Amino acid sequence: MRKLIAILGIGSVIFSACQMNTSKNITEKTEVEKGYKVYKNVCSACHWEKVSPEQIKNIRKTVMSGGRPPFNAPPMSEVSARVKKFYPTEEKFVAFVKDYITNPSREKGVCMPMAFKIFGVMPPIGKNMKEEDKEAVAKWLYHNFHMTWEEFMRKNPH
Ligand code: HEC
Predict the structure, then answer these.
(1) Whose CA is closest to atom 22 on ligand 1?
(2) Are 158 and 78 in contact (CB under 8 A)?
(3) Which of 104, 139, 144, 151 has the fewest CB atoms found within 10 Å of its own CB?
(4) Which of 85, 92, 122 best tests ligand 1's pocket when mutated (most atoms within 8 Å of CB)?
(5) pLDDT in tens, 13-32
């Protein structure tokens, strides 16, 4: 009997741990989806979501011959990989993004020097955003892309 209670006890601990895990994942999923909406509404005016190596090649040619890229900021796939190089954990990454979009500066920025040269420093658009929207978009930026900076540059040399 004691053994049975012990087994049931262990079982319920495992069961509730799993439940906790699932509900955390569901909350996180909802937040990432919300973050994508924020991206669409606020950030996509300047940042494309991603670029293909082919597009990068063409854009590079345009820039080399004195033209402007077809967007006003580096694509988010690149921004995500770049910021992760300097702020690898989710906690540090999210804190950096929330602060940067609210109080951007050349000193704080970790983008390639070329990005600052072409686009200038990002405007502080986070000043007009709700805290929860900043949190959601930062989490989306962290979770939606999976390449390291080195992988990104290997695939998209520029
Ligand atoms: C008006 C254009 C514009 C909008 C809108 C915009 N950005 Fe940017 N963003 C830029 C430019 C330009 C850069 C590159 C220069 C820099 O890093 O400041 C940049 C760079 C960044 C960086 C990299 C910062 C670094 O380390 O250098 C992050 C992160 C970022 N943007 C997040 C966002 C998010 C999230 C949104 C939407 C909530 C957003 N941006 C909306 C123009 C914009």
Answers:
(1) 79
(2) no
(3) 151
(4) 122
(5) 666 666 666 777 888 889 99
Residue 109 in tokens? 């920025």
Question: What pLDDT is recorded for position 28?
Answer: 85
**What is the rounded CA–CA span in Å between residue 30 and residue 38?**
13
State in Å: Cα 25 to ligand 1 middle: 27
User: Where does ligand 1 bind, in terms of residues with CB under 6 Å?
Assistant: 42-43, 45-47, 72-74, 79, 83, 97, 100-101, 104, 109-111, 115-116, 119-123, 125, 137, 141
The per-residue pLDDT for range 66-96, each reduced to its tens digit, is 898 999 999 999 999 999 999 999 999 999 9
3-state secondary structure of 68: coil
The token duo for 56 is 């990068």
Q: How far apart are CA 16 and CA 45, in angstroms?
A: 43
Could you tell me which CATH class the domain 31-155 is placed in? mainly alpha
Q: Which of 121, 73, 74, 117 is nearest to 100 (CA)?
A: 121
Residue 100, Cβ density class (10 Å: 0-12 exposed, 13-18 middle, ≥19 buried): buried
